[in-house]
Amino acid sequence: MNLRFLETFVWLAKLRNFRMTAEKLHTTQAAVSSRLATLEQELGVRLFDRGDREVTLTHEGGKALVFADRIVRTAHDMVDSLKDRALFTGVVRIGVIESIIHSWFPDLMTRIHRTWPQLEVELAGDTTIKLIEQFGKGNLDLILHTDNVLGANVQNIALCDFPMRWVGATSLNLHGELLTLADLANFPVLSFSRNSGPHRFLERLLDEQVGRRVHVNCMTSVSAMIRLVVDGFGLAMIPPAIIQRELANGDVQMLKLDMEMPDMPLVCSYRAGPETPLFQQIAAQAQQTAQDFARSLPAHVARLPSATAVPDPWSPMSAGS
């Protein structure tokens, strides 16, 4: 029984989507379909029911998954046991946006140090735009940010999604009423860095919904933006995931708005190839860390990636009423 076919079966059962499974395994949807058909023929059962957008396990598929997952895990454990990662030395250059630094990145650093204790990490904290620029120049090995990167030998994997909510200082006494964008525009509006996805979204949305020019104050520092919100200077659309302490302390409150904001998708981009297996392994650690973080919190704070996410979540059309 082909181990690669079993691994394909396991990932399709997890992701329930041929395209996402193909991307995860760095292959084509046709290859995924072929492997699955061969495995079903070999086992003599149908493993999935196919839908328009996703697949679901059959009863026989559910029983087979228990054994397949065990076989795949055992094989990976065997390979890992033969590698002495503790002896790996070198430097990896990781770029990361502040929204991740303020949430689950410390947990990722702990995992990296535990797995590769001799590995040196050079950290660059910056905006998505600048991280992609530095990644393109070869100055960073992998980046944790919000956009997919196109390029030869570049892989992108979904990490988790951060819902975006409008927040303001508790002292403003705005959290008890249903607000409109026009109401919010009466206060200074704070946003992420200029030309970032959230900034472009806000500029377009406010222009369309408010009916007058609204000045948006752009911040390259998330810490500074949070500080200004806490101090009551203005309102901001940010992920609750990065202000859990401020929310718990009662310094800020999530505001009720008459429309929903899009989620912020988090992505890891890295250079893939036989000469750089470390980057893929760290990317997998990042994905596991982000998704463990999402599973530990309510859905309005962090979520697993959506299989049906729109290509551009910052398009005004993605904001539901």
Brief sketch in words of this structure:
This protein is of the alpha/beta class and 321 residues long. Helices cover 42% and strands 20% of the residues.
Model description:
- This protein is an alpha/beta fold and 321 residues long.
- The protein is 42% helix and 20% strand.
- It has helices at residues 3-15, 18-24, 29-43, 59-81, 98-101, 105-115, 128-136, 181-184, 197-210, 222-230, 244-249, 277-295; strands at 48-50, 55-57, 90-96, 119-125, 142-145, 154-163, 165-169, 178-179, 189-191, 216-218, 235-238, 252-254, 256-257, 263-271.
- The strands form four sheets. It has a five-stranded mixed sheet, sandwiched between helices.
- Helix 6 packs across helix 12.
- The radius of gyration is 22 Å and the shape is globular.
- It starts with a helix and ends in a 26-residue tail after the last helix.
- Residues 316-321 have low confidence and may be disordered.
